[in-house]
Specification:
38% helix; globular; FAD/NAD(P)-binding domain; 8-stranded mixed beta sheet; alpha+beta
Length: 399
């Protein structure tokens, strides 16, 4: 960690990344390894991860594109060997029409569709790799002001210190204070839902398969964990989520079994439960003067496709590649026209994905019998159209 005196003596920065979650830490590590003098500012250090701890309730489904980036950064082997739940298949079915669709990695000539990994394992592994890569970690650090001055941006910190960099990267979450400070607006909608999460043991094994059932109240996912359990992500209306959270374990396990159509048999044990709110939010722009957004600060999406972190890590790859290309061509890597290239590409891709997830959520909310029948017909046709299904699978994988 950097003291105030060390900050005053430190060399000039190329990039200051604000926010040390999975996406922010990956961005800082990627940029440092690409040769940029980088600092990471974070209000709170991540909780140390230990194999002896209970599995974190917040998990992420890492797509092949994310695994490839983490491997480039030199952290994937550690994450995989620590605790990772690989999955090779996905089965999605509709509770109303009965229509189902299956994705299998073997159809793509791949071994796996992805890995289910704890959020804090990914964050902690990245955090530990920062120092060796030369990233200056400023923690605790809270930005209270930001001002672009000529060829640099100055950040005023809560401790009275300041630092400057040629570029500021905001990865400070969906409620991003920096995004508000530079005046970038957002649009979207509140789903009036919460995702209830828990880890459960079921009668039957998960078979390295991600199971997702669309219910009238919202999607339910059972994701395969490394220890044989399944991670539950159950999207429910606010009132229903509160009711489910308040159930005793026996009642919760029974309701979950019914909701999952007992696809994995009875639920025989469960951890504690938690819930988090769901909303769609897209930044109107991804850039300002010598400033860019990435991760949840730029886009928050419905978890039904498990793509939120994957989109953020694709932001990281795109930003690194754009900055490196500009620098290697002898240009100012933080110039507006360079940042516009990143912003245009990623905002277009992220918006397309976010709107697609939102449309899917709306379609599966249809209750009128003719619409349910049409939805079922569409799903059955898609399952038979191998080229289109393959294209969807490759897009989700980031290939």
């Amino acid at each position: 960690m950097s003291t105030a005196a060390e900050r005053r003596r430190a060399p000039a920065l190329d990039v200051a990344v604000v926010g040390g979650g999975m996406v922010g830490a990956a961005a800082a590590l990627a940029l440092a390894k690409a040769g940029f003098a980088t600092a990471l500012l974070e209000a709170r250090a991540p909780q140390p991860w230990s194999a002896g701890d209970e599995v974190d309730l917040r998990v992420v489904g890492l797509a092949p594109s994310s695994v490839a980036l983490l491997d480039e950064l030199g952290v994937w082997t550690s994450i995989r060997e620590s605790r990772s739940g690989p999955y090779a298949r996905m089965h999605v079915w509709d509770s109303e029409s009965g229509a189902a669709i299956d994705f299998d990695a073997a159809d793509e000539g791949r071994d796996l569709l992805g890995h289910i990994v704890e959020n804090n394992l990914v964050q902690w592994t990245l955090w530990q790799a920062l120092e060796a890569a030369g990233v200056r970690r400023l923690c605790p650090a809270e930005v209270q002001g930001i001002e672009a001055r000529g060829d640099r941006v100055t950040l005023d910190l809560a401790d009275g210190e300041s630092l400057s960099a040629r570029l500021v990267v905001a990865a400070d979450g969906a409620a991003s204070p920096l995004r508000d400070m530079v005046g970038i607006a957002t649009r979207g909608r509140d789903y009036a839902q919460r995702a209830v999460v828990a880890h459960v043991v079921s009668e039957r094994p998960h078979e390295q398969t991600a199971w997702q059932r669309f219910l009238p109240t919202g999607p339910l996912a059972l994701l395969p964990l490394a220890d044989g359990r399944s991670s539950v992500v159950w999207s429910l209306p606010e009132d229903e989520a509160q009711r489910v959270l308040a159930l005793d374990d026996a009642a919760f396990m029974q309701e979950l079994g019914v909701a999952s159509d007992f696809r994995l048999g009875r639920i025989v044990s469960s951890t504690k439960r938690a819930a988090f709110p769901l909303r769609l939010q897209l930044a109107e722009n991804y850039q300002a003067e010598r400033f860019v957004l990435l991760g949840d600060a730029a886009h928050a999406v419905h978890p039904l496709a498990g793509q939120g972190v994957n989109l953020g890590l694709r932001d990281v790859t795109e930003l690194r590649d754009v900055l490196v290309a500009a620098r290697d061509a002898g240009r100012d890597f933080a110039a507006s026209h360079v940042l516009r290239r990143y912003a245009r590409r990623r905002r277009s891709a992220d918006t397309l994905d976010a709107r697609g997830f939102d449309a899917l959520a709306r379609v599966y909310a249809w209750q009128a019998p003719p619409l349910v029948a049409a939805r079922g017909l569409g799903v059955r046709l898609l399952d038979r159209l191998a080229p289109l299904k393959r294209r969807i699978a490759r897009h989700a994988a980031g290939l």
